[in-house]
């Protein structure tokens, strides 16, 4: 039987004197729910909630965004992408478009979409025109792209894929000398597709408590209570606090289609670097719909060298849970949702954007400098 948020909050306060603990919430949707519900102000002060690497827009490598911009500007195509991707900035001279939004203003045919089915509809509407789907996302959004291709798409539709898996970034943090967290709230939607077992390494290899959560305050608070109880008893495990959606093994058909259409590869994460076995690439059987094979290459290896965050931007450290959004040097100063400098201020799943939308206006880095 499900319990209301008040029940779990009361139980959570029973851990108020148990010492400091840092709980990482991987998913950008979790961070949005936590911030919008004001949970940080409601839980005991000894519990820190750390936003993790759960924003695919934030870690999409600069070379992929740059390539999408160049295809849109230089080829006779319609380029479609999930809406958040249109505002992600790249490092280019001021005279050049630095985002897909600016490339659209410069005359490129670029359109935001909300689902792969929209890309198919646009391609079917004009079979004589090439349509390129710039598909960036984690498992939750990459699975529908795989399903789209597996079910068959128009000949004039190709995919510029920038898909990533979530768990390798957490594995990288745990394998580092300073993971930065003591317990994990695993993403509900990713676990719905891939299965909760994908996160068992957190417990089995590292002995760190973990719980899968949904997006309501009650399930998030339940997950917090679960990992704290695991720590108290010294029996870490993987708890499913989202059983109405997350099932053992995940979604078998979605996983089958992912495996049929895509292969797992090493992949670059913006500001982080290459993480082994963290990316998706189209298999050879789908080469006819691979935009990287269909068009002249606009890949630029120098993008990987300049593909860090813009000067002064600390998005990479925010993504890795090393600092909070308002500890970034540019937060709320040069970087706001209206004029984003870094990708974390662009996406609705970016921690900086979420914190700003939730009313956090204080720049802690600036305040510390003033005091010092």
What attributes does this structure have?
single chain; 372 residues; alpha/beta; Rossmann fold; 3 domains; five-stranded parallel β-sheet; 11 strands; 39% helix
Polypeptide structure, described:
This protein is of the alpha/beta class. The protein folds into three domains: 5-54 and 167-240, Rossmann fold; 57-165 and 250-306, HypD, alpha/beta domain 2 (Rossmann fold, 3-Layer(aba) Sandwich), CATH 3.40.50.11740; 315-360, no CATH class. 39% of the residues lie in helices and 18% in strands. The strands form three sheets. It has a five-stranded parallel sheet. Strands 4-3-5-6 form a four-stranded parallel sheet, sandwiched between helices. It is globular. The chain starts with a helix and ends with a helix. The model has no long low-confidence stretch (mean pLDDT 93).
Summarize the entry for a quick read.
The protein is α/β, with parallel strands linked by helices and 372 residues long. 39% of the residues lie in helices and 18% in strands.
Give me the CATH architecture of the largest domain, please: 3-Layer(aba) Sandwich
Largest sheet: 5 strands, parallel
In the sheet with the most strands, the strands line up as 2-1-7-8-9
Annotation field: number of helices? 18
Any idea what the radius of gyration is?
21 Å
Shape: globular
Head-to-tail CA distance between termini: 52 Å
Spell out the helices and strands N to C: HEHHEHHEHEHEHEHEHHEHEHEEHHHHH
Name of the level-1 CATH class of the largest domain = Alpha Beta
The count of DSSP E runs of length 2 or more, i.e. the number of strands, is 11
Overall pLDDT level: 93
Poorly predicted ranges: none
Named CATH topology of the largest domain: Rossmann fold
Strand content: 15-25%
Helix content: 25-40%
Number of domains: 3
Return the structural class.
alpha/beta
Query: What is the name of the CATH superfamily of the largest domain?
Result: HypD, alpha/beta domain 2
């Amino acid at each position: 039987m499900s319990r209301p948020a008040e029940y779990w909050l009361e139980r959570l306060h029973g851990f108020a004197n148990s010492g400091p603990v840092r709980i990482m919430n991987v998913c950008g949707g979790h961070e949005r729910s936590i911030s919008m519900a004001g949970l940080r102000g409601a839980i005991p002060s000894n519990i820190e909630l750390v936003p993790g690497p759960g924003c695919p827009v934030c870690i999409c490598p600069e070379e992929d965004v740059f390539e999408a911009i160049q295809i849109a500007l230089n080829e006779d195509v319609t380029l479609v992408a999930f809406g958040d991707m249109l505002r992600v900035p790249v490092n280019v001279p001021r005279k050049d478009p630095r985002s897909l939004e600016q490339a659209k203003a410069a005359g490129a045919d670029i359109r935001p979409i909300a689902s792969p089915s929209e890309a198919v509809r646009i391609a079917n509407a004009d079979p004589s025109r090439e349509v390129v789907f710039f598909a960036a996302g984690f498992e939750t959004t990459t699975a529908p792209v795989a399903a789209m291709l597996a079910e068959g798409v128009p000949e004039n539709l190709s995919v510029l894929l920038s898909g990533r898996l979530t768990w390798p970034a957490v594995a990288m943090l745990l394998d580092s000398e300073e993971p930065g967290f003591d317990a994990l709230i695993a993403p509900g939607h990713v676990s719905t597709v891939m299965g909760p077992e994908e996160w068992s390494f957190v417990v089995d290899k590292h002995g760190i408590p973990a719980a899968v959560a949904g997006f309501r305050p009650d399930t998030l608070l339940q997950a917090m209570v679960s990992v704290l109880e695991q720590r108290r008893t010294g029996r870490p495990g993987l708890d499913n606090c989202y059983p109405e959606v997350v099932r053992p093994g995940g979604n078998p058909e979605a996983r089958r289609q992912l495996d049929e259409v895509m292969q797992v590869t090493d992949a670059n994460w913006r500001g982080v670097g290459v993480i082994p076995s963290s990316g998706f690439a189209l298999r050879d059987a789908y080469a006819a719909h691979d935009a990287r094979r269909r068009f002249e290459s606009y890949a630029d290896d120098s993008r990987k060298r300049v593909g860090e965050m813009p000067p002064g931007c600390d998005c990479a450290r925010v993504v890795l849970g090393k600092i909070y959004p308002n500890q970034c040097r540019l937060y709320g100063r040069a970087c706001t949702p209206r004029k984003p400098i870094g990708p974390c201020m662009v996406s609705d799943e970016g921690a900086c954007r979420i914190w700003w939308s939730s009313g956090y206006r204080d720049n802690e880095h600036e305040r510390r400098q003033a005091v010092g």
